[in-house]
Structures are given as structure tokens and as C-alpha cells.
Amino acid sequence: MLMTVMVIYSLYVLIKLYVSVMQVGYINRAKRQDPVLMNAADFLKAGNYSVAKEKLSMVSTMIEYLLFIVWLGGGIAWLETTYMIDDPALQTIFVVMGFVFINGMVTLPLEWYSKFVLDVEFGFNRSTYALFIKDTVITVLISILLGSAVIWGVYLIMSSTQLWWLWSFLFIFGVIVLINMFFPTIRALFFDKLTPLEDKELNARIEELMAKTGFQSQGVFISDASKRDARLNAYFGGLGKSKRVVLFDTLLEKLTPHELLAVLGHELGHFAHGDIYKNIGMVGGMLFVMFALFGNIPDSLYLFLGVSEQPSVVMILFLLFMPVIGFIMMPIMGVVSRHNEYEADKTGAELGGKLYLAEALKKLVTENKSFPLSHPLYIFFHYTHPPVIERLKELGANIQAKDEKTLLEEPWQGVS
Asked: pLDDT of 256-278, one tens digit each?
């Protein structure tokens, strides 16, 4: 049984590394060809950035694999005997959180390298060491509080019923829904400063777009994201009455009001089509499969690992294999997600205009240094959004156009 587990995980790592190698080779060739969507210098820089990120991802995968071997080769048994606490619930919390903490400490240098080496080199990082430490400490504290509560809840369920995996799934799924509801509030409380949009005319136009799709929110807010990063972004956070429209200040700096409205029209398309709930449903389906699998692990696996069939061990094995299940299911979820993005683009084009949405996509690609070409295998396994070139083609754009005023091949109907 242990050999089967090792083979499955090893295949996952080999396939993931193979896809990354194909992506790196593909981009290294493509970045030397005629540029698309951006000028030659930006095209080359975006290609170099994508290659650097993928190489870092490969290092992360190898570290993940080594950690897996260490944990299954005696690490779990060691951790289980490290904390000798009389209260079994508290023992479970300490063991599982110890596992999470060790993994986090091992991978923290990669996060630091990504932010203070790669992102500095390519002009993204605006954070400081002090802010990075502050963010990390806050994240750890939130993880301890929330993680301990979740572990305690799962422990109580596992200790009280044979169908623990089903009830644990429902419990975790409920936690995910709550996190989605309160994410904007938590982020604003600990990380970003949110201020109401002061541009009354733009705010009125946004409210007009939201009214057309029946979207009701607590308001439109600006995030001071530029203090950490130069990338452009926006999000509609929360569920039900907790929904908020949050625009990064970097987005306001780079996009014209019409382009911004087109981007928001795209996001409103997701709301109108119920994509948020579809995504939560897909995550729920993946979790159900995982809990069903780990609720029926053969006793022989615990024997081979030299550990007891304790709730803490089951939870650690669950966390160890979560990336594998996610990788297997990602292609299915990706197909659905990419379809949803095309549909949201149609709504964005209807609400904000094709030209403005196409121009916004071009700016997002350039400013975020997102290389517009990828290997088909990489798209299959990793892309939740269609390649930007395919999105522009669906909008009727001429991707080779150099004159932004003639980007579209068909007349554009502007926002009324």
C-alpha cells in the first residue's frame, strides 16, 4: 500500500515537472519570435519573467516532493510523539498545526525570493522587509486561530461518528462559504486600507452597470494595493449582502474610465451567470472526492507508516495529498472556468464595449508582464482563464495590430 502511495505521488511530481519543462522550453523559443500584443522589449521581458516564475515553481515542486518523502518516511511518526498532551483534542491541534508550521517555514524562503528578488528584478515589488514581516506574522496568527478552530471541529466530528468524512466535508465546505463571505472584511481589516471611490461620475457609472445585472453591494472601494505590488487587479468579494467592489489603485492609474467599466462589466458577467456559486460548487465536489477517499484509507497504510490511526494523522495525510487531487481535477475545473471567462467577456463587451475591454486586456497583459503564449499542456493543466490571445480573437480583435485605434476589425458601439 505504501508503495502504491509513493508511486501515485511520484507520478504527480513527474507529470507536473514535465509540464513545467515543456512550458519553459516553449516560452524560451516564443519570446525570440515576433512579438504580439506588446512591443519587443516588453514581450521579451514578459517571457523572461514567465520562465523565471516557472523555474521557481519547479524548485517548489521538488521541495514539496522531498517534504512528502520525509513525512512518510518517519516525519509523521516523529511529530505524533513530539507533543505528549493529555487532552486528545489539544494534541490533535498541536500535531496538525506543527505539520503546517514546518511546511510553511521550509517554503517561506521561496516566497521571500519571489517577492524580493524576482518581483524586484521585474519591477513589481513595492513592499518593504518590515511590511513583509508584518504581513507574514498576521497571516500566521490568523492561520493559527482559524486553523485550530477547524482542526478542533473536524476532531470532534471524527470522534463521534463513523461517517466522519461526510460530516467533515459538510463542515469544511461551510467554512469555505463563510470565508468567501467575509474575505473582503478580513482583508480590509488586516492588510489593505479601503476607501470609498471619490470619483462621483465613475461611481455613478459603476452603479449603473451593477443595476443592469442586479448586483447589489456595500459600495465601490479603492484598495491601496500599490504599497505592496505594481500589478493591476480588481475583485468582487463576499457573498450575499457582504458583497463589495474593490479596485486596486494601480488599476485606476493605468486604465481609462471606459476600460475600467469594461473590466467591471466582465466581472459582473460572472455574477450574472452565477459563476461564483459554480466555482464554490466545483471546489465542493473536489473536497467531497477527497474526503470520501480519505474516509476509507486501508488500515495497512497506517501500519506501513508506523503510525496510529489518529485524527491528526488522517488530517496530515489529507493535507499531503490535497495538491495531487487538485492537480488531477484541475483540467476539468479549468475547462469549465475558461468557458465561464468567455461568457463573462461577452457580458463585459455588451456592458462596456468591445474596444475598451480589448484595450484593457492588452494593458493588463503588458502591465502584469503576462506572457501571452503558453504550451498547450500547460494551458490544459493550469489555466483557469483562456489565453488572452484567444479572448481577443473572440472579441474580434486583430492581435497583430500596432495601432491601438484600429485594434478591432468591426465597429465598436460605445457605452451609452
From this structure: 888 989 988 898 888 888 888 88
